[in-house]
Amino acid sequence: MMTLTVNGKAMKVDVDPDTPILWVLRDNLGMSGTKFGCGMALCGACTVHLDGQPIRSCSTPVSQAADKKITTIESMSASRVGKAVQAAWVKNDVPQCGYCQSGQIMSAVALLAANKSPSDKDIDSAMAGNVCRCGTYNQIRAAIKDAAANLSA
Q1: Whether residue 148 has pLDDT greater than 90
Q2: For 18, 88, 96, 113, which has the most beta carbons within 10 A of its beta carbon?
C-alpha cells in the first residue's frame, strides 16, 4: 500500500511499485483525463506534473512519485496559469479531436509556470514531446502566447 498526493489530496493505492503512474491514475483512482497514447513516452498524451515538472506518466513508475506531488489535468482550473491556458485554448479553437489536449495543456502550463514570456523557441522546446495528429500546432502556439499575455496583464 502506498500513499500518493494527487491534485493536493492524499490517496492510498495498492499497486505494484513498477506500475506506470498513468494506469494508477486511470484504473485505480478513476481519473480519466490523462490519456494513453503510445505507451513509450513519445506522444505526450499522458503528460502530468510531478512536483511541477511535466513527465510522461505512461513510462514513469508510481514508485518515483513517492513523497512527490502529482498534478493532473483534472486540477488545472484551480491554478491561475491553468485557467489562463484553458481559456486561451478555447479562444484559439485549439482542440480538434481533443485526444492530445490534456497532455498539451499540461506541458503548456509547466512552460508558463516557469517562463512567463516564452519565445517561439521556448514554446517549441517545451512542446516538442507533444504530438497532435490533427496538426493544431499554430493554434497551440497562439494559445500559449495569449495565455502568457493574459498572465502578464
Answers
A1: yes
A2: 88
Residue-wise pLDDT tens digits, 57-72: 999 999 999 999 999 9
* β partners of residue 53: 50
The reported pTM is 0.96
Show the cell assigned to 27. 484504473
Give burial (CB, 10 Å; 0-12/13-18/19+) of 147: buried
Tell me the Cα Rg of the chain. 15
Q: Which amino acid belongs to residue 99?
A: Y
* Sign of the C-alpha dihedral computed for residues 78, 80, 81 and 87 taken in this order: positive
Distances (CA, A) of 126 to 11, 15, 31: 30, 31, 25
Q: What is the DSSP string of the chain?
A: -EEEEETTEEEEE---TTSBHHHIIIIIT---SSPPS-SSSSS-TTEEEETTEEEETTTSBGGGGTTSEEE-GGGGGGSHHHHHHHHHHHHTT--SS-TTHHHHHHHHHHHHHH-SS--HHHHHHHHTT---TT--HHHHHHHHHHHHHHHH-
